């Protein structure tokens, strides 16, 4: 079956959903099954956590220093301030991701609007 295999307006969305689910959900289930047998202190699990953290840090760094799209129009100082204040809110709210994201986004949008 191909992307152009069905002539229906909903088909591309279903195709992308199925393709995305198959590509990621298999690995998630393998992780769940294998992860339950691993010790939290095992070298493999420490390596996986370290690699995942490094990848996330790299993506955040790229978004801050070399953004694309609409984010590129925001001044670098606003982007860095939003990240720093969002991280501070995250820590002050006892590691609440929602608090960090909402505060960081508010600072980004407010600073962008103020300076443009």
Q: Report the portion of residues in β strands.
A: under 5%
Molecular shape: flat
Using only C-alpha atoms, the radius of gyration works out to 20 Å
By DSSP, the count of extended strands is 0
What structural category arises from helix and sheet content? mainly alpha
Main beta-sheet strand count, sense and barrel state: none
> What is the CA-CA span between the terminal residues?
48 Å
Keywords: Membrane, Transmembrane, Transmembrane helix
Protein name: AzlD domain-containing protein
Transmembrane segments: 12-30, 42-64, 70-90, 97-115
InterPro entries: Brnchd-chn_aa_trnsp_AzlD (IPR008407)
Task: Provide a concise account of the structure shown.
By secondary structure, this protein is mainly α. It is 72% helix and 0% strand.
List keywords for this structure.
2 domains, membrane, 4 helices, flat, 72% helix, mainly alpha, 116 residues, transmembrane, transmembrane helix, 0% strand
Give structural notes.
The structure is a single chain. This protein has helices spanning 11-35, 43-65, 76-92, 97-115. With 116 residues, the protein is mainly alpha-helical. It has two domains: 1-37, no CATH class; 40-115, no CATH class. α3 packs antiparallel against α4 (97-115). Keywords: Membrane, Transmembrane, Transmembrane helix. This is AzlD domain-containing protein. The chain crosses the membrane at residues 12-30, 42-64, 70-90, 97-115.
